[in-house]
Every structure is written in structure tokens, then in C-alpha cells.
Task: structure prediction
Amino acid sequence: MARTWALTTTDPETTDKPDELGWLARLRKRLRILYHSQAPFALRFQAAVLIVDLAIIAFFIASPLIKGREYFLWIDYSIAAVVFIELVARALASTSITRWLRQLPVIIDIFILITLLAPTWLFNLGFLRILRLWTLSKSTIVWRPLIKRRLGAYQETIQAVINLLVFVFVVTGFVYTAFVSEDSGIVGYVDALYFTVTTMTTTGFGDITLPGTFGKLVSIAVMLMGISLFVRLAQLIFRPAKVHFPCPQCGLAKHEPDAVHCKACGHILNIPDEGSI
Result:
């Protein structure tokens, strides 16, 4: 009897949410398995979610080009429904919904959902929807298959590429929204993209410039942040890949694959090669 009482009082399924209905508890347990398990059926579900997310991001990139078409609102509201369902599913799959709601990627996703529900009023903020790509890059659904296939060493490089793409499209959307006019030379989305790339790479052909003091300040910010992202990406691509192997003495996490001693404290390391991992 004592053992039975201990099990019933310490079982997380019964103590986590004592006021939950039975069907809701079963649903949350099922969603946790689908989102976090590595079972074959869960991996297929996660792959499907990833494909849907990539399709949504493609729509966000194409939105400035197809806005005004008769089918735009239909696609927009359909994607809003998908994003809402996914947010609810992720919330139920979390162990603590309140803690989950405080995470920055979740806050960004909620903001994106709001722009989808009010595309006409908030279209000027629609360029921020591409931040969905950044929130997706923070998901274990993206990295788990790579780590499982021993491609985790490329995670920082892939993350840097994603950060660069997000920056390019956010700035492009902002420039298109704030400066589209004949005077600035930006009359379409491609012109805004062209200006962004030439400015952030400091190429500066000068055929498209942003007017006024505010335009100059935007150009300066794009150049400073853009070149920093490019340098960071180049470092990750051309520098030798490091392995994640915490030093037992000082805790330094990353070392060269053939390192014998920790470069921070000199402790002898025993890094396994790829064949023995």
C-alpha cells in the first residue's frame, strides 16, 4: 500500500496538472512523443512539420511579390490557421506552458501569427515574418537529424548562414516598406534586395541610394551589421572544424579534432576519433 501511494504521488503524469481532464493529459503526452521522441513515427511527423514550416517561409519571402493578387488573402489566412494549430500543439507538448510562452522564439511566432490575422493593417510589419526562419533554426526538429547523422559539426556554419539570410530579408523588407519610391530608385522588391546586398557587402555601386539623413543612417547600419555577419560566416567556413569535447579539468568545450592537450589548461585530452564515437 505504501509503494502504491508513493507511485501515485510522484508520478509526473498525475501530479503535473492534477486538474487536467484525462483526454487532455493523453493528448499532451502524445504530442510530447511526436515532437520530442526519436521513434520512427515521431521522426516522420517532425519531418512533415519541417516541410510545412519551410513552405510557410517560402510564402513569407514571396509575399511582397504576390500581395494584391486575389488568392493572397486565402493563402495568408490558411497559413495563419496552420501556424495557430502548430503553436497550440507545441504549447501542449511543452512541460510548462507559462515557461514556454516566455521564450523569445515563441513570442516571435505569436507576433507573426498576428500579422497573418491582420495582413492589411499590419502588412508594413510583414517583413518581420521571415524571423520564422530564425525561430525554426532554434528548434530541435532541424538539428536532431543532423546530429544523428554526425553532421553536428556544421551546426554553427548552418546557423550563421540562416542568420545572414534572415538579416538580408528583414533589411530588404524594411527598405522596401520604408523607401519604395521613384526618388530613391527602389520601385520593387528586387530593387530593395539589390540595394541591401550591395550595401551590406560594401560594394556600393551607387545606382540606388536611400534619400535623406534617415536613409544614410540605415545604409550605415546595414554595412556595419552585414559585413560583421559575412566575416563571421567566412570564419566558420574556412577555419578548421572543432569537436565538442569538454575538458575534464577546466571545462573548455571545443577543441581541434587532433588536440592532445587542452589549449586553456594543458590537461591531457582523450578525444575519440569519428570511428569510435
